[in-house]
Amino acid sequence: MCENHQYTAKDFKSDQYVRWCPGCGDHAVVNTLQKAMAELGIAPKDTAVISGIGCSSRLPYYMGTYGFHTIHGRGAAIATGVKVANPHLSVWQITGDGDCMAIGGNHFIHSVRRNVDINVILLNNKIYGLTKGQYSPTSARGFVSKSSPYGTVEDPFIPAELTLGARGNFFARSLDVEMNLTKDAMVAAARHRGAAVVEVLQNCVIFNDGIHTCITDKAVRADRTITLVQGEKMIFGANRDKGIVLDGLTLKTVTIGQDGYTLDDVLVHDATTRDNTLHFMLAMMGCTPESTLPVALGIIRNAEAPTYDHEVEHQLEEVAAKKKDHNLTELILQGETWEVK
């Protein structure tokens, strides 16, 4: 892959008409992804975008790269095959909360556990949009939908919890309305060696409109979200006067300058530590009904570890070097042979 060429977002756009509902958060995501790819400078011919089934999974059609619209929940498995077969490709998996967390859940956790070098963009609108409004694995307990008219009686998956539970080494979160933040997360995911998951909290204007309004509305966003930045204090709020501190074994929101708390007490973000204990706590902030903490955005975890595709490639090279036969022809001809005339 060459990363020296200057590309623009237009280089990664296809000629296909974008078929999503007007106002859908998917429009922002595809435009942001095209900008991120332009910034990375990897040629379209060296890029592959893989998806499963769902509204979000139409995205490969709109990319001027290689693309594969596969089958429900199998995007991770096919993306793994693409990356292992051609490790030099930049491979992206586009998936939704249903495609990824339900039928595709097993493939997802194992691609993360294996640390396959693919970039997973997980669009989470907490609903099945393509099949017209059933609750999804990320819908909250009590959520009323066409398939749960009296409210769900299930607790949801939280993508960050599942990713880190599968020993994931990269997790970031953004909002569909925060395009610059989403682009930065995508770029960082692509530059990370290994499985990288970027969750985008996205709106479905038809079947789940306003599901993320409690944190995306401009009037409350500054107080109910915190953007984590590597090496910087965990400060947030409309007045930039709130911070995250460690209170015993739990995280706590404080007002700087009150109750004896100073700037020195506020935690500094380090996404690169191998121990994921604090990353897990940060990723879970604001994600449960009882949490009063802000939802963490930005790059929450970005740690290094061996990648599956590199290890397989290295293993094949080692084995091949020790073998007498290096291809199928040599294997067939290594024993006694006869020439038939």
Q: Structural class, please? A: alpha/beta
Which residues form runs of ≥5 with pLDDT under 50? none
**Cα-atom radius of gyration:** 22 Å
Order of helices and strands: HEEHEHHEHEHEHHEEEEHEHH
Question: Can you put this structure into words, describing what you see?
Answer:
The protein has 341 residues and is α/β, with parallel strands linked by helices. The protein has eleven helices and eleven strands. The strands form two sheets. Strands 2-1-3-4-6-5-11-7 form an eight-stranded mixed sheet, with helices on both faces. It is globular. The model has no long low-confidence stretch (mean pLDDT 95). Residues 53-200 form the Thiamine pyrophosphate enzyme TPP-binding domain.
Compact overview of the structure:
This protein is α/β, with parallel strands linked by helices and 341 residues long. Helices cover 29% and strands 18% of the residues. It has eleven helices and eleven strands.
